Amino acid sequence: MVATERFRPSVTVAAVIERDGRYLLVEEETPEGLMLNNPAGHVELGESPIEAVVREALEETMRAFVPEAFLGVYLARFLRPARLEDVTYVRLAFSGSVGEEIAGRVLDEGIRRTLWLSEAELAACAERHRSPLVLQCVRDHTAGRRLPLEAVYSHASLQAPLVKG
Fold it and tell me: Rounded to two decimals, what is the model's pTM?
């Protein structure tokens, strides 16, 4: 067997936010054009997934996100033609609530606007989804999937790496 480079998927988080039967989404500029996504993004060095989803939701919606449940772990592989990139994403999705937009905040770079869509409206524009995980997370939320936040454990070494010796 020939040794190959180690598989390194991109770890991301997503916020699934529902209010009155509508889901908060972002419209964002991507190399593939203007797409719809749950408020989402990459986990940064030193962050727990819960810290990351709170930060990403705030940056992309200008609203404070309060995680209430863990929806699950989602994986998807994409061939991005605009960048000739083959990437696998591991998405940790959380459901929760938000307040109103925070005065003085601006949307993250690349985010054009936020919008509230029903599950049916979201399903009707699948060609505009950043990934198939957008609708799957909403469908799982609608179906009532809720896991405790404690299902996602973050060791203290995220803040200060362990020294092996």
Answer: 0.91
